[in-house]
Structures are given as C-alpha cells and as structure tokens.
Amino acid sequence: MAFADAVLPSPAPEATKAAAARRIVAGLPRSRLAAAAADAVICLFLASLWLLPAGALASGVGRVACGEGCAVVAAASKVILGAAVSCALVSPVAVPLFLIRLASLGLFAEAEKAQRDAPTLSRKSISAVARESLGDPAMLGFLASLPFVLLFLVGDLLKAHSLVKGSRQEEIGSVISDVGFLGMNGLYCFIMIPTIALQLWRAWRMTRPGQ
C-alpha cells in the first residue's frame, strides 16, 4: 500500500486550478439582491473607466477648439477627477468581483484549455486563432490605439525639448500630441471599453437566459 501511494501521480496543475475556480464560483453570493449589488459595483467600475477617456476626449476637443480657459475643458476636468476618484474607491471591491464574474462565466476555463492545448496546435490552427483574435473589436481597437500612443509620446518629447517657447518645434509637437491624445482616447471611449462591457453582458445573459 505504501508503495502504491508512492507511485500515484499528483493531481495535475490544471485540475487544481479548475477545482480552485469551482470553489470560488461556489462561494459567490446566491441571493438575487447580493448578485444584483455585485453587478451594480462592476457596472459602476466600468462606467468610471469609460468616463476617464470620455472626459479626456472632451477636454482635448475643447482645448483645441477654444483654448485652455474654455468652459468645456473645465467641465471635462471635473468629470475626469470624479471618474478617477470613483475608480480609486470602487476598484478594491470591483476588481475581485469582476474576476469572480469572469470565472463564473467560464472565461478562465477557456483560457486555461487554450493554454493547455497550445503545444499541440498546428501552424494552421495558430493562424486561425490569430485571425479570430484580430476579429475582436476590442483587440482591433487596442492595436489601432498604439500608433496614437506613439504620436502622443513623440509630440510631448518635441514640446519638452523645445528651446524657445512658442517656437515652430513646440507648435508641431503640440499638433502631433493633440492628434495622438484625441485618437487614443477616442478609441478607448467608443470602441475598447464599450466592446468589453458588451461582451461581458452577452456572456452574462447566456448564463441566465430566463432573466
């Protein structure tokens, strides 16, 4: 018996992770009121995240249109401040709830299965996975935002290294920085965050078709 116990294989890491995920999901609140409160916290967190690029976009447009003293810029600054404070206050509770919600929807299980099957993927299947990933609007929005992030950084560097205030270099840097800033926040506001929220809502509705 001791020899048999010694040669028995230990549980696979994937099985251990799956069991841990099931225990987490089993510990979720079961009452409708608690579940609704958790969903409300997650929605507040996503809304606060969305308000950050939305406020930044409004601030950038107002600054380009009518200067720093514009009322739109002042209002957008207050929106950004409120969203940042909301994210800071809600995130300690919302982020764990968000991860537990993803686990309850089976999204972690799909990721673990894909990682476990990765060594056996053929070249054709890898290209199929790449095409599927590139078909995701959130991924496309992220990839499209990278050039705007680069433009924003380059514009800021040009302004920072301008030797004379109001010089041609500073003006060019401001234009490049504004283009990158507006494009980056526009993609975050209109594509990335709404797409992530919509995908989460669809997955949640699939698990509760009667609600």
Please characterize this protein's 3D structure.
With about 210 residues, this protein is mainly alpha-helical. The protein is about 85% helix and about 0% strand. The protein has 8 helices and no strands. The chain has helices at about 1-5, 15-25, 30-65, 70-105, 105-115, 125-135, 135-160, 170-205. The radius of gyration is 23 Å and the shape is globular.
Write the layout of secondary structure elements.
Elements: H1 2-7, H2 13-26, H3 32-66, H4 71-104, H5 107-116, H6 123-134, H7 137-160, H8 168-207
Beta percentage is under 5%
Succession of helices and strands: HHHHHHHH
By secondary-structure content and strand pairing, the structural class works out as: mainly alpha
Gyration radius over CA: 23 Å
Give the N-terminus to C-terminus distance in angstroms.
53 Å
Number of strands: 0
Low-pLDDT windows of residues: 1-9
Biggest pleated-sheet summary: none
What's the overall average pLDDT, rounded?
77
Cα shape: globular
Helix proportion of residues, in percent? over 70%
Alpha plus pi helix count: 8
